[in-house]
């Protein structure tokens, strides 16, 4: 743009310089030889006397362009006309170029600094737009994860409800609501479910209410992840939990029995199994236990027990005499028990004369009483060395 302007100025200056000699010559001829011009009009002619010039006009070169008689000679006029035409053509070309590249008056010309600033602003805006996209993508991903977690929580709640339904009669008045949650979490872990809590932590110390009819007095508010829900417990006895069992015979597996007795309006548990000593193998579905002088004790199991649940309830602190007079050779799942809460295992297998099973995997609480745990259980002698080594006790103290 600037180059075009300079070219225009240069051409204009050159044209002016070229015209100056012609103008000067024309003025000189007019001064010296043309003071009196004959103007022909048909056959008549008259001599014209030029008007007197004032001093100012003489000083300015005697300009008299407005006087009809001051016309230049033919040659000079033709040359002047030719140059004027060429000049006008050049001027026209320059004007065309200027018009074609004309910058709108309302648009400022950007300097290098303004272009740099615009570029920086553009980078900033792009960065902000990209950041917004990332934030939106992050929120979308979080929302998808939330929905997936919510769906998983709902699915797990259904599983927890099934567990509670199965274990609804497995608690006594010595349990608190926290004890209940801790025990349910043990079973939930088998299904790879974790995180079950009470909705209100302060409810943890509340003891379960005695409810011999079941389903009326123990509504517990639970939470699993994003889901809040309630469950109702069944039969809750005073200081006792009933034992549930069935005969191993295939045709009787659906007939679950228990050791609940009602006498004089009270609900108690039957701690003897005389009526079930008939040689039929019994599967215990729910371990019963009760409070006595040794602690919260595992109720004596039936004589022909062949299978027990693989989890010993957390609340049990004593298995004293719990397998007294056992007739079975072995009991399925008993080797998987965790006895880390058991303090008293004295004489647990007293007179279990046919029983022979490796229980070295048992996890015993440090300092637990294991005195005479296998007293008169002579078939256990073949396992005692291994058991004593694992439990870190003397063999002689086990029998």
UniProtKB/TrEMBL annotation:
One of the record's GO cellular component terms: plasma membrane
Subcellular location: Cell membrane
Keywords on record: Cell membrane, Lipoprotein, Membrane, Palmitate, Repeat, Signal
Residues covered by region (Disordered): 27-152
InterPro entries, A to Z: DUF285, VlpA-F-like_signal
Leader sequence segment: 1-24
Chief site of localization: membrane
Feature: compositional bias, Basic and acidic residues: 76-95, 121-152
Compositionally biased tracts (Polar residues): 32-75, 96-117
Keyword match Lipoprotein: yes
Lineage: superkingdom: Bacteria
Membrane topology: Lipid-anchor
Name recorded for this polypeptide: Lipoprotein
Organism per entry: Mycoplasmopsis agalactiae (strain NCTC 10123 / CIP 59.7 / PG2)
């Amino acid at each position: 743009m600037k180059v075009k302007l300079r070219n225009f100025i240069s051409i204009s200056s050159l044209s002016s310089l070229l015209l100056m000699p012609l103008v000067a010559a024309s003025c000189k001829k007019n001064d010296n030889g043309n003071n009196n011009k004959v103007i022909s009009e048909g056959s008549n002619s008259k001599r014209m006397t030029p008007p007197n010039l004032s001093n100012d006009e003489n000083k300015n070169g005697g300009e008299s362009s407005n006087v009809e008689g001051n016309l230049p000679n033919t040659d000079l006029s033709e040359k002047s006309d030719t140059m004027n035409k060429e000049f006008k053509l050049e001027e026209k070309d320059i004007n065309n170029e200027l018009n074609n590249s004309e910058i709108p008056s309302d648009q400022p010309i950007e300097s290098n600094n303004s272009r740099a600033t615009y570029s920086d602003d553009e980078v900033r805006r792009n960065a902000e737009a990209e950041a917004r996209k990332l934030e939106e993508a992050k929120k979308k991903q979080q929302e998808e994860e939330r929905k997936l977690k919510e769906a998983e929580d709902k699915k797990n709640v259904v599983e927890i409800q099934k567990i509670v339904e199965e274990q609804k009669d497995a608690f006594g008045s010595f349990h608190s609501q926290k004890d209940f949650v801790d025990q349910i979490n043990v079973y939930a872990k088998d299904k790879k479910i974790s995180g079950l809590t009470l909705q209100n932590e302060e409810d943890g110390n509340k003891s379960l209410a005695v409810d011999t009819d079941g389903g009326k007095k123990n509504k517990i508010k639970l939470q699993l992840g994003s889901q809040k829900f309630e469950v109702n417990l069944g039969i809750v006895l005073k200081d006792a939990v009933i034992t549930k069992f069935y005969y191993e015979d295939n045709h009787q597996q659906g007939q679950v029995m228990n050791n609940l007795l009602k006498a004089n309006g009270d609900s108690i548990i039957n701690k003897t199994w005389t009526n079930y000593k008939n040689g039929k193998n019994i599967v215990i579905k729910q371990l019963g236990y009760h409070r006595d002088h040794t602690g919260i004790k595992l109720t004596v199991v039936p004589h022909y027990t062949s299978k027990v649940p693989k989890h010993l309830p957390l609340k049990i602190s004593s298995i004293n005499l719990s397998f007294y007079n056992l007739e079975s050779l072995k009991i399925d799942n008993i080797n998987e028990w965790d006895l880390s809460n058991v303090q008293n295992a004295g004489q647990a297998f007293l007179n279990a004369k046919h029983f022979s099973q490796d229980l070295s995997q048992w996890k015993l609480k440090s300092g637990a009483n294991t005195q005479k745990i296998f007293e008169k259980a002579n078939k256990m002698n073949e396992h005692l060395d291994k058991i004593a080594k694992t439990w870190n006790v003397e063999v002689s103290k086990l029998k």
